[in-house]
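Q: Structure tokens for this one, please.
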Amino acid sequence: MSKLPDVSRPLIIKRVPVSQVVPWDKNPRGIKTADFERLKKQILTLGVYKPLVAYKDGEQYVVLGGNMRIRALKSLGVTEVDVSLVKPKTEADKVKIALSDNDRAGFYEEERLAELVLPHLEDINVSDFKVDIGEPLDLRSLLERFAPNLDGSEDQVTASLAERFIIPPLSVFDTRQGYWQDRKKAWTSLGIESYESREGTKATGALSGSVPRYYSMKKKAEKRLGRELTHEEFAKKYLPDLLPEDSMLHCTEGGGILSVFDPVLCEIVCRWFCPRGGSVLDPFSGGSVRGIVASSLGLRYTGVDIRKAQVEANRRQAEKILLPETRGHDFAGDSSRLIVAHAPRWIVGNSLQIDKKAPGEYDFVFSCPPYFDLERYSDDVEDLSSLNWEEFCRQYGEIVRKSCGMLKENRFACFVVGDIRDKTGLYRNFIGETVNAFRAAGLSLYNEIILVNVVGAAPIRVGKPFGQYRKVGKVHQNVLVFYKGKNPKDIKRDFPADVVEGVDP
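A: Here is the predicted structure, written as tokens:
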């Protein structure tokens, strides 16, 4: 037989200094300015006729019932207040008390309420509570908006999140999953050759511009074999085993070496963090993928790259796949190309002058920067990959500053980065340098997502360095999302609650 709660014990009501009373930081209620003023007037007219409901936390009293009243009392300059003390044993108890003590002043912020209740569904019977959001509503129907299939399995809930946001908005993107690979095939079926090399030719060919010490490694392999190797044979059979374990170059299914930007990652990031129909600035545009995907989604993309050959290759790729919408144009016979409102724009130039090369205002800054000397992109003395570490960081920070200076308020920036090792094998903390660069530009780190890559040849490459030096193989990158704005609560003003997919690949 369960023990009944002791309902006969008297309430504990204390008069305490207002300075020791604080609102509950998880309180899901808000109040409009006019209603807040009416509440203050009511207090001046009728006085305070019931105590606040609070629990003691150290020297403070945390309010579970009466959050609007304590704000009004502090605004009126009241110095002491009566508090009815409660002793919640769990977080779920705090939620129950807060929901039960629902004053009419103010309103529930729906998303905060759902976020508060969802972790405690095992301990709370949501059918016992009514909430007031414009009109009385049972709590279960409210939660269904944010987590359909409340009684369903984890797979069902994950599927419902995917319907709203393409993939579940969690802090790990796993590119190995079937749903990711299926979506990637849909994009590549458009004809995106994300394996264009840094020199504008197929990656199985001239790799010298993107793989450090390419010719040196090729000659050593030839000397060991006693014969010459074609670029294609070397790239497929021998180069994967010679790359450093933290290289961001990836292997194709046939064994070739590619520097790839994932189109699915591009799609998700653009749809999540760029307003529909917005503009994208890419200061390190590299290959064609980001521009083609962004344009396919109805965005206006501008990329800057120092290599003329790469820019020309990107333009050729876009012309094969995309057909810019033109008034009165007859699209008959062009069904193989995707009609877009805006063709991607690539500009040749040093991104240190990005404010002059691509002036204007943008809705999203999105890029994958060069990883210092891990990949050598060109022989240009102005190329970041040709600089020493200190100068690289200085110029990198300046490019970030200028790019973010053209970013509108209440907007996001996203850089896909990974850490890199110095010659001694120690990490340089490139991720930290990136965060510092954006903070110096006035942005705040808002999301950090781990991108888990296909393992590929990593198990082969990692054996020796781990056996000798305990260096683990790197199979992930960091997707860093930054926010430019004074108050993240403004985000919902420009970004819808659900992600609208628009054009599907």
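A few notes: Residues 194-210, 245-258, 327-334 have pLDDT under 50 and may be disordered. The two ends are 60 Å apart (CA to CA).
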